[in-house]
Amino acid sequence: MNKREVVFTVNGETRRVLVEPRRTLADTLREECGLTGTHLGCEHGVCGACTVLVDGQPTRSCLMFGVQAEGASIRTVEGLAAPDGTLNPLQRAFWENHGLQCGYCTPGFLMLATWLLERPTPLDEEELRHVLSSNLCRCTGYQNILAAVRAAARELDRWTESAPA
Amino acid sequence: MKPAAFDYFAPRNLDEAVALLAKHGEDGRVLAGGQSLVPTMAFRMARPAVLVDINRIEGLGHLSAQEGQLRIGALARHAHFESAVTPGPLGALLARVVRHIAHPPIRMRGTFCGSLAHADPASEWCATTLALGGTLVLRSAGADTREVAARDWFQGVFTTAIRPGEMLVEVRLPVLGPEWSCGFAEFSRRAGDFALAMAVCALRLDRGLIREASIALGGLGGRPVLALEAAATLLGQVPSAEAASAAAEAAAAHCDPHSDVHAPAEYRRDLVRAMARRALAQAGVA
């Protein structure tokens, strides 16, 4: 097949891969880069399990082709913990709040929440729920996922109490 | 769930893009945000032989108000509308509508023009563009720019007036002055789902009376439609709960919703009545 060379960075490391144009970014990360932390759930943009950050934006990597990533800076779940494996505050909050159940949706939620916590505007309950509604958890463990992101936001001083209704 | 093979081109300018579309005709598809096209390719409902990725073309992401028109370029993403892109009722309406489109990650890649080109029956931007009487601007190789009015654009499910080789390069919406008021409401079972019904309205008031009215409905199957009878009931009226009820009844009575696995037609008809009333209430008719 007509494979193409594509160059991008993943978690700061330059990757040069050969992919067919039809290869999604998700499959490119998993198959060509060996980064299987990015999970594929529905493969048609509904579940959000494959969410990664592309040039700082949360992106469903099943809805983007690997060839489109030329020159892009990509962050995946593999880039969150310290090199020695120490969890970052968001990962630790998931651990402490039982935000992982089967773990399948976790990488997508972590990357979505990473973006949410890095935004300049403080986070409140309404926005938290609005944004996290992007992704599905097949265990329906949403309350603990919300609690985890809330806890991380508090620890990182990103949380603001919503105005009383 | 893997797309079929295709040839991929990422042209650097518009001339190159339309030349590729001219060359490949019905085999070629424009790839902008890809948030609708790529899922249909994953399901192999679409199997384009050629994708023309326009994301590398400079100057297509414009969003500017000029000569009374908001010009929305082919690469203006949904998320750009989350804060008002133009002062007054138009920017406020678009900012309200966009919060109903899928989810933040989808909104950051998906484009306004892509929604109009895809023409999903439940597209918020399609119903909005129809209600506002927008204009679609098309480019093709070696031809003059063609303009199509929104009312002539939508032909059916995923079917528009676009011709092979054409690319939708811009959508224009009329900038609305302070005498206009607008509303939008939709119903979906879960946040971000395709709506089962939606209503968009734009009204012009003069000395306390409604002088112009437009209402569009979406999510009913087929294509977005103008609720002409409902809009007509509002003309010359003082904004009131009675006027809203009469218009909502007319919208429900004259629409032709489809039944599908998500909702029967009569449920959608009830939703049209409720959504029309909510949209009108936002526009001050309550």
Write up this protein.
The complex is a heterodimer of chains A (165) and B (286). With 165 residues, chain A is α+β, with helices and mostly antiparallel strands. In chain A, 31% of the residues lie in helices and 15% in strands. Chain A is built from 5 helices and 5 strands, in the order ββαβββαααα. Chain A has helices spanning 25-32, 89-96, 106-118, 125-132, 142-155; strands at residues 4-10, 13-19, 51-54, 57-60, 73-75. In chain A, a hairpin with a 2-residue loop joins strand 1 (4-10) and strand 2 (13-19). The relative contact order of chain A is 0.15. The model of chain A has no long low-confidence stretch (mean pLDDT 96). Chain B has 3 domains: 7-53, Uridine Diphospho-n-acetylenolpyruvylglucosamine Reductase, domain 2, CATH 3.30.43; 63-174, 2-Layer Sandwich (Uridine Diphospho-n-acetylenolpyruvylglucosamine Reductase, domain 3), CATH 3.30.465.10; 180-282, 2-Layer Sandwich (Enolase-like, domain 1), CATH 3.30.390.50. In chain B, helix 9 (241-254) runs antiparallel to helix 10 (265-282). The longest helix of chain B has 18 residues, at 265-282. Chain B is globular, with a radius of gyration of 19 Å. Chain B starts with 6 loop residues before the first strand and ends with a helix. The relative contact order of chain B is 0.12. The interface between A and B is medium-sized, with 31 and 29 residues.
